[in-house]
Specification:
seven-stranded mixed sheet; alpha/beta
């Protein structure tokens, strides 16, 4: 059988001959059917009450913990996630479900006095109905979970359409979730663009994570229908290193953020901005740190940078660095996997694609800046604004510069990568559209506020 015979095909990126699954796509009619079944199941899920929803989400967390070794191995095999990162993602996934298991007990509104006369004014948040979740392959358990758990906690039904490259992970996650929930409350919809477009055209709320181009189409289609939509898209993230920073520590953080999981994170560092005298020592320290990054089999516990998700992704990294001056760019393992060496380039001409476009790989640009103001200007000069890391010992400089950074998240003396799931996640400009994800912000997105006026039935 060929991939063409089965539109949904998942390969092991460390060994492309290892095919995890090949299945037919359900098509647009399959998406419409999934939404219809979810919509029929949603009212009973909501009316079952807070205790039932809390218990179900808690059961999912416990089941993920129990299956941690299996899920870890599946993420390593299907999406090439290094073993240590895969373990951490599975642990975080369980923690996400456990966190939102308490959400059904949280207040959903407020009571207000009327402006004049007897009565009460109430606000109450209610679920939208069916939440469509369109998710990427790079965090195959965590991203579907940080979308699904708050949607379900608030009383919505969910239809999940994962990226084709992570279909096996999504299938296993769906099995775990469905065992804890009533029938049709959580539905898996495998597929590609056809299924995704059909889902956006029928669901009651849409949450998307993926490329900027697709995210804009999703946001436009949902907005035209008048349904709530959030889209988390690309990043071209900068790390600013000031001369007073601990250069060795900063270099270690940057190497992890550039090369960890082969740079396949929307929060990865793509631009390193060295301020003034920091340039020379940082250049040397970061080159050494990147040379030391273990590249290889993601199943090896020592590996930090595994394969790219596809041959096309690997080739894109090579095309992006072609003709540039490398500070460092090592060798890759022999063998069949789609690997790229962690690479730092410099002397990049203005307007180069690396200064305008996200390249999802272990590749970053080293840029000099005269001072903090210049560094902030360089950071803000790209179409994206997801996260910036700032490395300095000067709190005053940090406080003065932070509010001028046009990014949704700012991390001080830490890698640009890393997510705190109990806080809002999102960016500015082309990185995000709509309300924030995660934390209490997610519960607000998956519900709408209704205002009730309660007046006495008889004059008093």
């Amino acid at each position: 059988m060929t991939d063409a015979a089965f539109p949904i095909t998942s390969h092991n990126p460390a060994d492309p001959s290892d095919v995890l699954l090949q299945i037919p796509a359900p098509g647009a009619s399959g998406a419409a059917d999934a939404v219809g079944r979810a919509r029929a199941a949603q009212p009973d899920w909501l009316l079952g009450g807070a205790a039932a929803r809390s218990a179900a989400l808690g059961a999912v967390a416990a089941a993920i913990d129990a299956a941690a070794a299996e899920l870890t191995a599946l993420a390593v095999r299907e999406v090439g996630k290094p073993l240590a990162e895969a373990r951490a993602e599975v642990a975080r996934t369980a923690a996400i479900w456990r966190y939102y298991a308490q959400a059904p007990y949280e207040p959903v509104g407020a009571v207000h006095e009327t402006a004049a006369g007897p009565g009460l004014l109430l606000t109450r948040r209610r679920p939208h109905g069916v939440a469509a979740l369109i998710t990427p392959w790079n965090f195959p358990f965590a991203i579907p979970s940080w979308k699904a758990a708050p949607a379900l906690a608030a009383g919505n039904a969910v239809v999940l359409k994962p990226a084709p490259e992570a279909t096996a992970c999504a299938q296993r996650l769906a099995e775990i979730v469905q065992q804890a929930l009533p029938d049709e409350v959580f539905t898996l919809l495998p597929g590609g663009a056809t299924e995704g477009q059909a889902l956006v055209s029928t669901a009651d709320a849409v949450s998307f994570t993926g490329s900027t181009a697709v995210g804009r189409d999703v946001a436009r289609a949902a907005t035209e229908r008048g349904v709530p939509v959030q889209a988390e898209m690309g990043g071209l993230n900068a790390a600013i290193v000031l001369p007073d920073a601990d250069i060795e520590r900063a270099a270690a953080h940057l190497a992890a953020a550039i090369a960890g999981y082969a740079g396949q994170k929307c929060t990865a560092t793509s631009r390193v901005i060295a301020v003034g005298a920091a340039l020379a020592p940082l250049r040397e320290a970061l080159a050494a740190a990147l040379r030391a990054v273990p590249v290889g089999d993601p199943a090896d516990a020592a590996t930090v940078s595994g394969p790219l998700i596809s041959e096309a992704a690997r080739d894109q990294v090579g095309d992006a660095r072609r003709g540039l001056s490398p500070v460092v760019g090592g060798t890759v393992p022999d063998g069949p996997g789609w690997y790229a060496a962690p690479t730092l380039v410099e002397k990049v001409p203005p307007g180069h694609r690396l200064l305008r476009e996200e390249v999802f790989g272990p590749l970053a640009v080293l840029l000099p800046a005269d001072d903090l103001a210049h560094a902030v200007h360089l950071t803000n000069s790209v179409p994206y604004g997801l996260v910036t890391s700032v490395h300095t010992a000067d709190l005053d400089a940090t406080l003065c510069g932070l509010d001028r950074l046009d990014t949704g998240m700012i991390r001080i003396n830490a890698p640009s990568t890393g997510v705190d799931f109990h806080l809002p996640f999102g960016g500015t400009k082309a990185s995000s559209h709509g309300p924030r994800e995660q934390g209490r912000a997610a519960l607000e997105f998956y519900t709408s506020t209704r205002t009730y006026t309660l007046s006495p039935s008889k004059a008093t």
